[in-house]
């Protein structure tokens, strides 16, 4: 039985690798293929009457690790210099304004049709408002460098801002001046911790001469994130700061203290670390979506009770995105279509406290919105005629 499971996992991950290799050519997001593959495995186990353990408790763990590695991967690829400030500003506005607007639109819809409280309605609306970097970043490899950079910044910031807003709403029973002040203090603390931890991890990355050096660094990154979550600190800010700092050492050379880290040698180690992070992110992301696909029930995908809600949410997403791109003077094609929902939407949905759930938001609605936004992105990228630059 053990050997069979190993063989099965190896075959599934190799198929996932083929999906990843061919996605830039076929323009089909690998997440759709992974979900279908996971669902097909489930149907096969039912057909052959194979009994497997309940994998659902593993999903949040895989999702959290995947989110960390994906944001780290994205931040390592970003250039941070004066020429990029305009792009960063547009990315921040693109990530924040449509998210907040859509959150309130959905919250008021939930209140109007279901008479739910505004705070609970907002908490349940936020997961639908976040662009999934886990899907968006791998899907734009074939776009021009400018469009690709915008998507990386926008989706990473969307993840971070979405988690910040969600935690603020979910963890505070009342929203008042005290809760806002406490939230501001949390941001200050995690920023200070991030700078200290980044300096420490960079020092270790440079000084460890053991043949195993990158795995301990990644484990420390995961540990710092996990500890920050215990104290309800926004740990993704640490991931972003760490990735941007070590990925932009050349921009930091003008500071004298950076010479203590021997930046030329450290740059070589960062290159190797980046390669490991990319491969780790692929592995965890593939496992997450395979497992999520495996746990999908056919009735949940075909649930007609939630389909109109899903369609309304998806239409709202792309109308707001069109307005956003027009206001920011960015090209509609192909950026309009790159607004998928995915890993972070699932994670936040799973973390909603049972006392805060509302009947309109269930697994069927989450799955349908994820699939519809991925299909829209697939069609948009397939019809995109611009070439990579």
Offer a concise description of the structure.
This protein is mainly α. The protein is 75% helix and 0% strand.
Annotate the secondary structure layout.
Elements: H1 2-26, H2 30-47, H3 58-77, H4 85-114, H5 118-125, H6 133-139, H7 145-171, H8 177-207, H9 214-230, H10 235-247, H11 249-252, H12 263-295, H13 298-301, H14 304-327, H15 343-351, H16 363-382
Helix pairs in contact: 1-2, 1-12, 2-12, 3-7, 3-10, 3-12, 3-15, 4-5, 4-7, 4-14, 8-9, 8-10, 9-10, 14-16
Description:
This protein is an all-alpha fold. The protein has one domain (about 1-380): Up-down Bundle (Na+/H+ antiporter like fold), CATH 1.20.1530. The chain is built from 16 helices and no strands. The longest helix has about 35 residues, at about 265-295. The termini are far apart.
How many independent structural domains? 1
Label the structural class: mainly alpha
Number of helical regions: 16
- Classified by CATH, the class is Mainly Alpha
Strand content: under 5%
Number of strands: 0
Order of secondary-structure elements: HHHHHHHHHHHHHHHH
